Amino acid sequence: MLFDQIHGMDLLTDALEGARFVLAVLGETIPSRASLVHLYDASRRAFVVVAARGEQKDSMILSRQDGRDPLLRALMPGGRPFAWRNLREVSIRGIPRFAELSHIDSVVAAPVSIGSRWMGVIELVDPLSRGGNGLGTAEENGLAYVADRYAAYLSTRGVIVDVAEIARFALTS
């Protein structure tokens, strides 16, 4: 289902529509408490959340993360989805985009990149498989596929990191 649905992204016009579409597809296939798409602002060397779904989504949009963000810093070198589990014991509330969430058990993130060119990140907070057994290899592979398809989409349409444009787009949801 995920592999068939994601091809609908090709009919969209820009990075923000693509981000919202990616989160909708992932929401149907990998339910999560919250999900986010960050795009990379090369001029500021930071990631900005351009779309979010789930709990506290409005407080996450437009948050910026730089290279010191502990979750993104761990993700960047590998180039593959990375899962942080058992986060209840970790002080993750100091990460601004998660400040409004009461607790977080796990975060799974996938880079949106082509080779060494970073375009963004997709992040799932407390994801579950449809069976409720947590995230397995199939879901991580699906997330990687979606991230790769979104990277290909962005390579032809470009990223959007203008705060006013993101804010206007967020108000249309």
Largest sheet: 6 strands, antiparallel
Succession of helices and strands: HHEEHEHEEEHH
Roughly how many Å apart are the termini?
Answer: 24 Å
Helix content: 25-40%
Number of helices in the DSSP assignment:
6
SS-derived structural category: alpha+beta
Pick out the low-confidence regions: none
Q: Give the total of beta strands.
A: 6
Structure, explained:
The chain is an alpha+beta fold and 173 residues long. The protein has helices spanning 2-5, 15-29, 57-60, 70-75, 137-157, 163-171; strands at residues 32-41, 46-54, 64-66, 82-84, 107-114, 117-127. The chain has a six-stranded antiparallel β-sheet with strand order 3-2-1-6-5-4. Strand 5 (107-114) and strand 6 (117-127) form a beta hairpin. Helix 2 (15-29) packs antiparallel against helix 5. The radius of gyration is 15 Å and the shape is globular. It starts with a helix and ends with a helix. The model has no long low-confidence stretch (mean pLDDT 87).
Brief sketch in words of this structure:
This protein is 34% helix and 25% strand. By secondary structure, it is an alpha+beta fold.
What tags apply to this protein structure?
173 residues, alpha+beta, 6-stranded antiparallel beta sheet, 6 helices, 6 strands
